[in-house]
Request: fold
Amino acid sequence: MRKERLAQFKKKLEEKHRQLVEGVGKTVLYAKGPEDDSTKDLGDQAATSYNREFLFELSNGDRRLLKEVGSALQKLEDGNFGDCERCGEAIAEKRLEALPFARYCIECQRAIEEEERTAAG
Reply:
């Protein structure tokens, strides 16, 4: 892959990384916010609890995504960005354009998803 193209992917990944770090930080701050439930009725307390739980789960997804973005940035540094982790073939640039932190080529991704469906079903 050309240096200019790699630089574009690096810029996209760094921006995504920044957004995720910012988002996870805000979610953590909200989740740790003061809990003055003394003036809330039971319904309000339940809604607050649900919102915090929802944001925590969302934050877990963001953390996973943050790890994947970090891994892609490391691959850029190591010189193996864009290689499928399963088969070793190059991941299509169109796929990387849509998902710059993709770990697998489309064929391997489909196979993995099918294996997961089979195991779950």
Summary: Residues 83 and 102 are 9 Å apart (CA to CA). The helical segments are 3-31, 42-78, 93-98, 106-120. The radius of gyration is 19 Å.
